[in-house]
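Q: Give me the 3D complex with adenosine-5-diphosphoribose.
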Amino acid sequence: MDIANIVILTGAGISAESGIATFRGPDGLWNGHRVEDVCNPEALARDPALVHHFYDARRAALDEVEPNPAHLALARLDAAWPGELLIVTQNVDDLHERAGARRMLHMHGELRSALCAACGVRERWTAPLPPGTPCHACGQPMLRPDIVFFGEMPYAMERIDEAIARADLFVSIGTSGAVYPAAGFVRTARHHGAATLEMNLEPSAASFFFAETRTGAAGTLVPAWVDQMLG
Ligand code: APR
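A: Here is the predicted complex, encoded as structure tokens.
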């Protein structure tokens, strides 16, 4: 099959070799916190200081990490690929952008962004974000971390669905396939006739739905795959 249009889903595993902990690994991020305590609207309402502090710490930690060869390889593919290409990341770090990726979106929000719970405006944010910070657009003291919490609607779902409907190849990198709707993208892609490839440290909950699964570290597998695609 000729591959013209590609959709690439990435998860925490692509940033692991940059030193950012994954969510469900042995040292998983949630291990320090129960998800219920930091990643849902109820937690934000119940203990805003805890939730804001949790994301302030993760935002500050971005200054200590760098894109790894997997991020750099995807940026290289993005720059050179003549067909359509969209990187859909579940990650809230900015390592894809810092590696140079352009055709990409964050479906679960971004650490370096603040969202106004009153007017919905999103603004770039790199400093700590205390509860009650006023929104620059509407003035209400309602800025919150721009993270899609469990139970909230991910960003850009229409754009993602359209890209998957047109994809000839759907690739998943470094995700456990544990969280929907992202975990269901591979089935939609297959339904539209796309080829499917998974690259992950170990088989995932979604491996069954991929035509091919390559197990190993993203920092090794992804550059080799990009060389294959651009070869
Ligand atoms: N290379 C490739 N894959 C790796 C590597 C690596 N170096 N290290 C870990 N992995 C794999 C793990 O085997 C695991 O399958 O990455 C996957 C990470 O899975 P999760 O920790 O569940 O992260 P993710 O799939 O991105 O979680 C999805 O859940 O908590 C929510 O919103 C959060 O976006 C997140 C979503």
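A quick observation: Residues 6-20+66-108+154-230 form a domain with the Rossmann fold fold (CATH 3.40.50.1220).
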